[in-house]
Amino acid sequence: MHKLVRQVRFSINPFGPNPAGHNSFASNPPGEGLALYFALWVEIQGPIHPDTGFVLNVTDIDKAVRSGVAPQFAKFIQGRFWDAENISFKDLSLLLTQSWDTLESPLAPAALISLKLELSPFRSLSINSKQVTSMNISEKFEFAATHTLWNSKFTPEKNFELFGKCANPTGHGHNYVVEVVLNVPTDYPWPGIGAIEKIIDENFISLVDHKNLNVDVPEFKTLNPTVENIAVVAWRKLTPALAPGLLDRINVWETDKTYCSYNGS
Question: Average pLDDT, stretch 215-237?
Fold first, then answer.
């Protein structure tokens, strides 16, 4: 059984008609002037068709989203804009369940597994079932820090062999990206994204940003500040600061080629 994931980009004009587009790389529909951009990740699962080698032709996914889901988004968003109503994460999760219903038949016989809506390059909302009792809300944060990878149990030669340039005695720096993924029940009294950001900033980001991790962060007196251990420390700091069960996982990038995902449950 294979899984296939496709990103479909579209833009919605909140104030009027949505023109037809011809550049799916930028978004189609394209919007006009000031428009809202979305990227919808569609994950499906199924066997490979023996004649085509496809789980499903990705152009069929594109067509289903653009002909069915994009108009639903347009109708919903335009109604809320004219009524000046706030659109919450819960509202968007319900919109995704409508999208799920719309996509199930066109994507058959492949099974729809998840829908993830990118609201910005740094924030996303996803659901894993059309019977939605919870949603995943993720947000990325950045911090800059230096570290040295070294284990005093090893000889200097062994440290340099294992850690290479990362064992530089004076350290080296990274612009880290931390993605905090929350599993939020739809009936949870959501305090607002600003309140969640404040908790994450105060309980983790401010502790590591512009710091020498080996020297300035007590946890790394005994832990090597690898990307794996940074994820562990972030989990331990944020779990008690957030509501029980709210934290789903921590993803930490130290470069755009290397990241670690951690769930300490």
Answer: 92
